[in-house]
Amino acid sequence: MAVLVAYDGSDPAQKAVQRAVRAANEIGEDEVVLLRVIEAADGMLEAGFDIVQDRLKEFREQEPKELSADIRSLLESEAVEFRIEAVAGKPAREIVSYAEEHDVSEIVIGSHGREGVSRVLLGNVAENVVRRAPTTVIVVR
Fold first, then answer.
1. Domain that holds residue 106
2. How large is the greatest C-alpha to C-alpha distance in the chain, in angstroms?
3. How many whole angstroms separate alpha carbon 124 and alpha carbon 90?
4. What is the domain-level CATH number for residue 89?
5. To which H or E segment does residue 139 belong?
6. Predicted TM-score (pTM) of this structure
7. Which of 106, 94, 74, 75 is nearest to 1 (CA)?
8. Strand, coil or helix: 52
9. How many domains in the chain?
10. pLDDT tens digits along 31-74
């Protein structure tokens, strides 16, 4: 089983990674999965927009640029393995779907995401994940 972190590069997401590592150690999990959701409307996915496909390829081939040195160091120093996954779609739906389809024991998510308008939207993402998740959800501020 793994601990899933909804990761968007924001400060709360960085804190969520730290909490996920602690949670994995506490409950005896050996893996932390950082899930990047590239927000895309259903129509964009169905049409196969190149920009969405290019962003997915970029995230799958390299670690997120927003992964701070502190977080990289933490992940490298702990006994847990970590990997990064990237999917495209509506964030709350994709986070819940990933948890349902994979062996996830807990979800850790920041209370809000990046600053500005998307901060409000990502706050709604955390709320929707809490309501719909098939497992325990830890919300980090």
1. 2-140
2. 43
3. 12
4. 3.40.50.620
5. strand 136-140
6. 0.83
7. 106
8. helix
9. 1
10. 999 999 888 765 555 555 566 667 666 766 665 566 778 888 88
